[in-house]
Amino acid sequence: MLQAEKSSLRSKIVMFAPFSLANRILTSLAAISVVALLLIASSNTHAAITFSALQNGVWQLYFQSSLNSLPQRIKTQSITGDKGAPSLSLDGKRVAFEVTGGGVHVCPIEGAGDCQSVSVKQGYAVRPTWNPQTKELSFIHFTFKADEERSTIKIASDSLTKITPVIEQTGIQDFPDISPDGRSLVYTSWLTIMPYRGAVRVVQQLWTLDLAIGKAGQLLLSNVSDIHPRWSPDGTRLAFSSNRTGRYEIWTISIDGGDLQKVTDGPGEKTWPVWSPDSSRILFTHTQEGRTSLSLVTTNNGAITPYTPFGPDAAIQLKDADWRAAAD
How many CA atoms does the CB half-sphere of 90 hold within 13 Å? Predict the structure, then answer.
């Protein structure tokens, strides 16, 4: 779907200051915030899940208030098209999502309230993810110029009315996710390698950005595709999907770039990981024989089980789950 930029191998990075003074004060309380998040994650009482399900040829959004509750379709009002990449707000009351060719939207999970849209003048917005501390929404803004496709990571205010760029970096940036303490952002950066002899190759590497001081750096040196990074609930590890062994499997790594571990193995491509609130399992999109489903893997032993919210006999394709402990 995306064509990587074929220009320079040298990355030109421009950092922006996305935080207001009030937000900087909030980030100074990071230690207290992490403790609060860990207390929330210690119980599954409010562990909410959202995902996309293919029904009547269209991807629709569903919500579960807990792992074993019945899925409820999220009302998206007049928003049409395939809906994916859902992200739950920390309070579990709103969901941000992308519509294929239709940008990023935010809708209430249940009850009254109108859906809102993220407005960009040119191009389109995708990959929404919430900042747990500020209630701001980070997303990717794709733009086109001549034969070139570019992307910028941006942040929208809680009301979605003010949009601020976070980082501009040569090429394509994708799949942002913000740490539980709201201080760091992880994303995938595309790099096009064009040797004078040999085939053009595109690699996707994990980068992190310190939102407080505006320092970006590569997390994991890679000549493969490392995509879909997600922070663990305690902020100490990242889960991501990588094809470094020939097919996409789920891996984890510490935030300092060490202790790389392969979590899954077996048939099918495994992408879009998300941690359980207690970090004991990872829910991911599992693609086999052209069909997508959701599966669970236990992080300590790699045991994989199908996740079937509509029942074991339901032949409904599923993808793009988000799973978090929702605060009261």
Answer: 22
How confident is the model over 65-75, as pLDDT tens digits? 988 899 999 99
**What is the model's pTM?**
0.84
Q: Are 130 and 144 in contact (CB under 8 A)?
A: no
pLDDT at residue 211 above 50?
yes
Cβ(48)–Cβ(240) below 8 Å: no
Q: Which of 88, 61, 58 is nearest to 73 (CA)?
A: 61
Q: Identify the CA nearest to 241 among candidates 229, 224, 259, 256.
A: 229
CA angle 284, 230, 293 (to 5 degrees): 10
pLDDT at position 326: 62
Task: Give yes or no for a contact between 80 and 97, defined as CB atoms under 8 angstroms apart.
Answer: no
- Is 132 in contact with 180 (CB distance < 8 Å)? yes
Residue whose token pair is 């920390």: 90
For residue 121, CA distances in Å to 96, 97, 103, 204, 321 come to: 19, 19, 11, 27, 29
